[in-house]
Description:
4-stranded mixed β-sheet; 10 helices; 31% helix; 20% strand
Amino acid sequence: MPVVEKASIMKRGHRTGKPKGGFPRFWGRHAVIAALANPNRVVRKIWGTREALTALELPPVLPIVYSDVADLGRMVPGDAPHQGIVAEVEALEDIWLDEILEAGRDDMRPIMVLDQVTDPHNIGAILRSAAAFDALGIVTQDRHAPPESGTIARAASGALEIVPWVRVVNLARALDEIADAGYWRVGLDGAASELLDKAIGTSKVALVLGAEGDGLRHNSMAHCDILAKLPISPRMESLNVSNAAAIALYATANR
């Protein structure tokens, strides 16, 4: 039986006003258990089948509604695999760029910078890879990235709760701050002449990836130290951004 020891229920200091789009709902065992275990996450309410909820040791103050599978299915998008459990949560508090730069002052963990990556499945998959390869965090532009959602939490398989996600107003300015902190900024671009394994070097690295289809914007390229490509077959034009992120993180970890 998974034991939830660190659940945060309506903690003071967190956002409690209802956001414009409503509070996010997470579904599926991995996403919900990870949210419950995150001391920085406020879980407001949980719905589930008796079978799913009795398999967990839940905080006694957490509001619980026993529900059947059909009711849960109406609470999530389409055919989302809720696995008998849905939770309403509050979005995590904002994290500032200087916080993760300070945290990475004395280590070599990479930073992922995403330029207008908007698909929540890709964001979730990138968070999962970032957790797997121990990235320092991900950085996105606030206006061109999706909000926290059940889709992201599900795709991230718990990583949304453990990988810092920084949202910035100006991505170019953020890249300058990252450079000032000693990071070598490597932009991934299929037309680059340099291969990634040669471009990443030996210093701290910020991996900069562009949007699905369009790739990096010119202004983002201009704020990279080098552009590099993955050594993929000419039979395939490009990779999905989340796949490219996973390969780039592996190459950085394996140098």
